Amino acid sequence: xxxxxxxxxxxxxxxxxxxxxxxxxxxxxxxxxxxxxxxxxxxxxxxxxxxxxxxxxxxxxxxxxxxxxxxxxxxxxxxxxxxxxxxxxxxxxxxxxxxxxxxxxxxxxxxxxxxx
Length: 116
Known about the structure:
The chain is mainly alpha-helical. It contains 2 helices and no strands. The protein has helices at 7-27, 36-115. The longest helix has 80 residues, at 36-115.
């Protein structure tokens, strides 16, 4: 038994076969790719996504730590500068008082010596 196709029948059959996968693909829901390449790409993308999230969280934590350290360091530096400035001001004030007192004593003594 042999099957014979007329040329026009064969063309219709070929046209129908070539359209069938496209029509079936349009009706069928998309299935995830199950090849090794697809799985590898999905795993790589998942790793990149998790790595990016982890990097962003780490950067945020380190930025907060850095900001806190800077803030604390600036506060400590300001306090130290204030204390040191106050000490310096007190020393200058006391030194000026002592110098004025010494100058007054020297002037008195010199005036007394000249008067005699």
